[in-house]
């Protein structure tokens, strides 16, 4: 954890008092990813598990389909560059820059009957509360800095993979990168995120055949619409012993299934 | 505000109870910006003040320097496209995709002696607390949905321009776009943001000659370093009657100056 935070002198001002203290601040790292010798993207991220981040990012963007397609990963941490070599050279449309002028086309193109998630996975409300409680206790950098997001892949019994990052997207990509490199299946599992669920986050998770997404925070309307279309159970605002289930509420059952 | 939110049926689960309620959710809108007939970027944003967003984005990216350079703004809300025409065609490096493989070069290139902020603007701790209290009460969409960020341009006496958006960057760009279109000066003023302050946010604000940035949330280490180099006063974690001053604490004085 030390590598992801740094101590800084801070002037703390409270009612009528000024104190010089030291505070722990989350580090921000600039990681340039090259794919087959072409500049792909520069991500601002937390400086840990950078291979997971690069692999997860490529996978989320559809640039790699499986571990077998990766020929080489060379991380130069000093220069902030990771060089990825893959079997096939797929087109990169970019998360930010798109060639489409149409509204929302990129987000809805993924929605068809094949991509609907039909698995019967169920979870009890108590299991959701227990997972989220565990999730919130696992976050050392957040507790130290208040400045990072976290994400986890779980099954009903507990957390399987956990990550933290200054970016919402990065935290989730790090999980999927780790799963891909370690051959951990994501299908029929559960994702928890500390961050807001936008359409991009919803799609990123649904593409992995994950039927249940839990957020500590709020969803957007597009995320709710996509979750409806893709038959994903979207849970938000899990706080204490309360939650909002936005879609496919049948998966959240009263008693442990 | 109605246009930026929508009501959805939600299953609320609390300890042993399931209730079908309606909840208000923040809308997410996909806005494609074209610049002089070239596709520039697609932003996921809240569907309000889209002209301010487009102008603020272009200005933050250095693609326009002033209002006089804008020849035309045509918003097609139905299709989610805004067409901007400008006098000059500047290069767009992209916020996400950069041609540089070096670490952090993009972020530090802006730092030189000329860009240091030397104004003597001071603010009292009480004025900071009062501004933040006002800021937090101005946020109707956040109060309704818990799912948006807000930003404000202020002077010591109060809020001059306020905006909300599902994106941290968008909320700030909307403010700067409004300032540019309405000839509101940003120099020697104060920015408040609900979101984390990363290097990108710090640079975006410092470029406007703003000497004081206040965040409800945490900064990253790069933002603190940049604030040190640029002599910007960076305040974080303003909660109730407490704040952390990370840099240039001399601007926060005990008594109202």
What does the model show?
Two copies of one chain form a homodimer. With 257 residues, chain A is α/β, with parallel strands linked by helices. Chain A has a domain at 113-253: Cytidine Deaminase, domain 2. The first copy, chain A, is 26% helix and 33% strand. In chain A, α1 (50-60) packs across α5 and α6 (199-206) packs parallel to α7. The longest helix of chain A has 14 residues, at 168-181. The interface between A and B is large, with 67 and 67 residues. β1 of chain A pairs antiparallel with β13 of chain B.
Considering DSSP H and I runs of 4 or more, what fraction of the residues of chain A is helical? 25-40%
**Which chain pair shows the most residues in contact?**
A-B, 67 and 67 residues
Supply the number of helical segments of chain A: 7
Give the full name of the CATH homologous superfamily of the domain at 113-253 in chain A: Cytidine Deaminase, domain 2
Strand order of the largest sheet of chain A: 9-8-10-11-12-13
Helix-strand sequence of chain A:
EEEEHEEHEHHEEHEHEHEEE
Fill in the CATH topology of the domain at 113-253 in chain A: Cytidine Deaminase, domain 2
Biggest beta sheet attributes of chain A: 6 strands, mixed
**Oligomeric state of the chains?**
homodimer
Uncertain stretches of 5 or more adjacent residues of chain A? 94-108
The gross shape of chain A turns out to be flat
Give me the Rg of chain A, rounded: 19 Å
What's the count of strands of chain A? 14
Strand content of chain A: 25-35%
User: What is the terminal-to-terminal distance of chain A?
Assistant: 37 Å
Helix-and-strand structural type of chain A: alpha/beta
């Amino acid at each position: 954890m030390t590598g992801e935070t740094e101590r800084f002198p801070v002037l703390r001002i409270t009612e009528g008092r000024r104190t010089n203290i030291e505070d722990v601040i989350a580090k921000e790292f600039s990681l340039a990813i090259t794919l087959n010798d072409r500049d792909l993207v520069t991500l601002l991220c937390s400086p840990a598990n950078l291979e997971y981040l690069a692999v997860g990012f490529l996978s989320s963007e559809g640039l790699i389909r499986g571990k077998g397609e990766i020929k080489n990963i060379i991380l130069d941490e000093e220069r902030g560059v990771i060089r990825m070599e893959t079997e096939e050279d797929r087109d990169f449309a970019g998360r930010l820059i798109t060639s489409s002028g149409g509204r929302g086309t990129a987000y809805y193109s993924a929605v068809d009957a094949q991509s609907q998630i039909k698995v019967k996975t169920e979870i009890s409300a108590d299991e959701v509360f227990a997972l989220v409680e565990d999730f919130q206790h696992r976050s050392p950098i957040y507790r130290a800095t208040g400045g990072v997001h976290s994400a986890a892949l779980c099954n009903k019994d507990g957390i399987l993979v956990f990550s933290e990052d200054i970016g919402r997207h990065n935290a989730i990509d790090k999980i999927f990168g780790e799963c891909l490199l370690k051959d951990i299946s994501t299908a029929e599992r559960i994702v928890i995120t500390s961050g807001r669920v936008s359409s991009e986050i919803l799609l990123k998770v649904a593409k992995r055949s994950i039927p249940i997404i839990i957020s500590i925070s709020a969803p957007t309307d597009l995320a709710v619409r996509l979750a409806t279309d893709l038959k994903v159970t979207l849970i938000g605002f899990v706080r204490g012993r309360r939650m909002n289930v936005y879609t496919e509420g049948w998966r959240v059952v009263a008693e442990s299934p």
